[in-house]
Amino acid sequence: MKTKTNSTTRSIVLAALFLALAFVLPMVTGHVPQVGNMLCPMHFPILLCGFVLGGPWGLAVGFVAPLLRSVLFGMPPMFPIAISMAFELAAYGLVSGLVWRKVKHTLPMMYAALVTAMVAGRLVWGAVRFVLAGLTGSSFPFSAFLSGALLLSPMHISEPTRRTPTSYAVSCLKNKLMIANNSEQPRATADIIGRTTTLHKRAL
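User: That's the sequence. What structure does it adopt?
Assistant: Structure tokens below.
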């Protein structure tokens, strides 16, 4: 009985630690634009929580983290970003924990569990965004899902903690436009940026 109580206490303490990291890490990377513009570190503690504590704990911490952070700090915005992100992170924590418990604890299997969890999380994110779009009468086209959930997921993952809907990919294109102002094709570059920005706004 005492061992079981100690195990539960340990799990609660570690879950609180991972939740705190999910709150703090975006603030830390936000002061480093080169890092903060490229990724959202809130996902890392949730994946670790799934690995260390198991799927159920990862699901609980992942679901609570973005919602509670939105209430306390105002970021990410509650609707629709924090809501869809809650389901996404819950999938990260659940799948990483379940897969890690079923495979051998080797480096290749660890990467396999991470990739599986990330793909599952992005698919859940896309499904939730589609449902929320239907409830609000807005549109969420399949092209936006491909852009946000699959094709640009390493860069789009930064969106939930940013105050503007411009992703790292669009920022790179804007930098290229500044260089292109002295070249022969500034209009073509501007047109590419316009189409890319429109696509990302639709994804949001």
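DSSP finds ten helices and no strands in the chain.
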